[in-house]
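Lay summary. Proteins are chains of building blocks that fold into shapes, and those shapes determine what they do. In this project we predict the shape from the chain. Here is one chain we studied, written as its sequence of building blocks.
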Amino acid sequence: MLAAAAQDSTSYRLTMATWAGDGETITRGEVAIADDGSAAMSLTMTEQGVDSLAVVVDNIFYMEMGELTDGKFLKVDLNDPSNPFDEFFGSIKDLMDPSSTVKTFKDSVRSVQAVGADEIGGASTTHYLVTVDTSGLRDALAGADPSLTASMPDVFVYDFWVDGDNRPVKPTSTTMGTRAEAVYSDWNDPSIVVEAPSADQISPLTWQEIMQGGPALQG
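And here is the predicted shape, written in a compact code that computers can read:
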């Protein structure tokens, strides 16, 4: 139900925070979904007091990286199999699809418990407690890095607040020392428009040059 409701939407805004140790990362974004199902997104990420801006339009990834890109946007075609951003873009695609977390663990759900009604940001919501079996994740990680599973609990517990149209409003979790919270709002707001940076905002550097240090290190 969550996946279907999210996929039927045309736009939304997102604020996500993660805390790990003493570190905090805040992500704020807007997503616009076209009639063909393709999504465009603009994200501002703040980590250790430093902001970075990423935009995804038509499967082109733009990222403003401060001094590395001289205040302009690196442009990467995500259809190019040689680009180094696929792993990073995978997490970005998850943000563009708020139902992705549900899809990932839907077959491992042990229980879903309705906790009660809450109001979040003016939206009437129902709070659910979702318990997920981690055995499948353990098996997947064991081959890659057995140390990752050493301290993994048998279950993860997620809190989901869902609105009356079955759209996610606030998922939260604390897993293995990392706390995460997201808030989705302004569903189907027609004022949400995401556009690619203009030509004069694009860095002339390639991603290969950026990986070598950009203008700050190239002199």
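What the prediction tells us: The mean pLDDT is 82.
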